[in-house]
Amino acid sequence: MSLPTRRAARAGQYLALLCYLVFLAFPFVWLISTAFKPASELGSLHPTWIPEHPTLDNFRAAFDEQPLLRAAANSLIAALSAGIIAVVIATPMAYVMARHRSRLSAAATGWVVVSQAFPFVLLIIPLFLVLKYLHLINTLWGLIMVYVVWSLPFALWMLVGYVRAVPPELEEAAAVDGASRLRTLVSVTAPLLAPGIVATALFAFITAWNEFFFALVLLKTPEKQTLPVVLTHFLGAEGASDLGPLAAAAFLATLPSLVLFAVIQRRITGGMLAGAVKS
C-alpha cells in the first residue's frame, strides 16, 4: 500500500471516529443545554445550542418537585451492592471455568451467553413469584438480588476472558517457588485480574444504576423507588413533560456513572500483566 493510500485510509478512520464521537456526544450536550435553559427558551421555535440566559431554576424545580436525593440514595445502594456481590460470586466461578476446561464448562459458558438474549418480560413473572415467596417485594434487597442475577452471567463471561489472559506459567512458577495454592491465587493471580474485576464491577454498577423496568415492577412505595423510576414522574398523564426540570434531573442522574468511570478508567485500561515480572 502506497503512502498516499495509507494516509487516506488513516484520515478516513479518524473521520469515522469523529462522526461516531459526535453521534454519542450530541444527546448529552443537548441535555446539558436544555437543563440550563429558562422556560422562555425551552418553548422557542428557534432553539440554540448554548442558553442565551442560563439559569439554575430547572435544578431547583427538580429538587422541589421530586425526592431526587432519596431516589439517588436508593439507586446508589442497589447499584453498589449489586456490583460488589456480582464480582464476589463471579470471580471464583470464572477462575474455575477458565482453568478447568471441560464439556461442562463449555456448556456453562454457552448458556451464559444465551441467557443474555432473554427479554425482561420473560423473566419478570418468575422473579416476582420468587421474591413474593421470600417476602422481598417492595424491598431494596429484593431488587439487589434481581440485579445480581441479571448481571452475573455477563460478569462471569467477562471474567472468564480475563482469567484466560493470565498465563498459567506464572502460577506454576509460584508453585515451584513453594507458594501454596491460596497464596498463588491471592498474590499472583488476583492482582493481575484487578483490571478485569474493576471493569466487571463498573459494568454491573452502571447496569443497576440505569435499570428501570425491574425497579418499576418490584418497588411500589415512593420511599423505595430508584432514580430512573422517579424521573418518569416529570412526565404528565398525557405525555406532556416538564422538560426543564426533567433535563436537569436526568443530567444529575448521569453524573455518578461519568465520575466513577473517570476515576477508575486508569485501572480499566492498565496492563493486566503489570508487575508480573519477578524481581
Question: What this model shows, in words?
Answer:
- The chain has about 280 residues and is mostly helical.
- The chain contains 12 helices and no strands.
- The longest helix is centred in the N-terminal third of the chain and has 33 residues.
- The C terminus is likely disordered.
The parts where pLDDT drops under 50 for at least 5 residues are 271-279
Which term fits the overall shape?
A: globular
H/I helix tally: 12
Number of strands: 0
Question: Could you tell me the strand content as a percent range?
Answer: under 5%
Overall radius of gyration:
24 Å
Helix content: over 70%
Structural class: mainly alpha
- Spell the H/E element sequence: HHHHHHHHHHHH
Query: Describe the biggest sheet?
Result: none
State mean pLDDT (0 to 100 scale).
82
Give the termini distance in whole angstroms.
44 Å
SSE topology:
Layout: H1 3-35, H2 39-42, H3 57-65, H4 68-99, H5 103-115, H6 120-133, H7 140-165, H8 168-176, H9 181-210, H10 213-218, H11 227-231, H12 243-269
Helix pairs in contact: 1-12, 3-12, 4-7, 4-9, 5-7, 7-9, 8-9, 9-12
